[in-house]
Amino acid sequence: MAKDDKKDVLRLPAELLYAHELDALKDEDKNEEKPVGWHLSPKAVLKFIVGGKAGSVDITPKYIGHDRLVEIAIATLLTDRSLLLIGEPGTAKSWLSENLSAAICGDSGKVVQGTAGTSEEHIRYSWNYAMLLANGPSDAALIKSPIMRSMEGGSIARFEEISRCASEVQDALISIMSEKTIAIPELSKELPAQRGFAIIATANTRDRGVNDMSSALKRRFNIIVLPSPANLETEVNIVNKRVAEIAGNYRLKATLPNREIVEKIVTVFRELRQGITLDEKQKLKSPSGVISTAEAISLITNSMALAASFGNGNITDNDLAAGLQGAVVKDEDKDKMVWKEYLENVMKKRGADWRGLYNSCSEMNG
């Protein structure tokens, strides 16, 4: 993608968004031994993910959490096993998957998005039926899946929300991951995977019962469970970082929220998610929806858009209340009562600093 073409792209892939960091790491890493198909050494990949410095360039952390989990993920991709990242919504599974792919092979775009409509063709291959009818099976008529293209080029394929696919579709991966080939009987040949090929899959623990993965498929993955942010400070840092990045990308004409605003939102989310106040003195009912870190980031980003479009550019309690109402109250009857109890029993009692947010939320909740 040309430089001029990037400025109006809604969302750049990680390899373009952080191109200057990757270039700096490549310069620093040029004398290091690299695995076949890798653009960076394992240590440089780790630095790209957890942050550091490459020459005079600051490498921003892409994942804030346990560095050891990232090390295990990178080590897994050095072997013939693929990687499965499991966690609650908002634990940065997809973000980690994308950035690992960008650092290792410079291409995070070979993605299969798991849904109820995903078929085996999305995993293996399909055909250009006009060419197929005109000339019969041929290489030109073959439409290769992202996984097939990754095998052919010795790079990483990403499989998002694997547990949302039907069991027979998931099991189509077993032979690919075991034999490292895709058979194409119509052309009487097989496509072997080149060195460097691996799959990074993600699965949501909230979706565990949708289409549970077979034990045979699980055995072919090294599974890493990504935990929710360990404490308030970590989650606040994650939200601050991602809000700043997204606001810059969307060119929101609003002032970034101060730490107090972010701490309030994260506090509300952590307490409702865990069903207990942070001081562990009062048990709470949890709403039916997902109260994740990703939701907190979205809420604050949307509040910035409200402030920029309909206010003076500074986030107000009314802006935050609108986002909180939508994030918490997913099931109108049950969640509205859960939210009301939280407002009256927790937020109202927190004093003057919370009074404005409490009033705005109470008015919004009716």
Can you walk through the features of this model?
The chain is of the alpha/beta class and 366 residues long. It folds into two domains: 3-226, Rossmann fold (3-Layer(aba) Sandwich), CATH 3.40.50; 232-365. Helix content is 49%, strand content 13%. The strands form four sheets. Strands 4-7-10-3-11 form a five-stranded parallel beta sheet. A two-stranded antiparallel ribbon has the order 1-2. A hairpin with a 2-residue loop joins strand 1 and strand 2. Helix 4 packs across helix 6 and helix 12 crosses helix 14 (293-310). 38% of the residues are buried. The model has no long low-confidence stretch (mean pLDDT 90).
How would the blueprint of this fold be written?
Layout: H1 3-6, H2 14-17, H3 19-28, H4 42-50, E1 52-54, E2 57-59, H5 67-77, E3 82-87, H6 93-105, E4 111-113, H7 120-123, E5 125-127, H8 129-135, E6 142-144, H9 146-153, E7 156-160, H10 167-179, E8 181-184, E9 189-192, E10 198-204, H11 215-218, E11 221-226, H12 232-250, H13 259-274, H14 293-310, H15 317-328, H16 332-345, H17 352-365
Parallel strand pairs: 3-10, 3-11, 4-7, 7-10
Antiparallel strand pairs: 1-2, 5-6, 8-9
Helix pairs in contact: 4-5, 4-6, 12-13, 12-14, 14-15, 15-17, 16-17
Supply the key terms.
single chain; 366 residues; alpha/beta; Rossmann fold; 5-stranded parallel sheet; two-stranded antiparallel ribbon; 17 helices
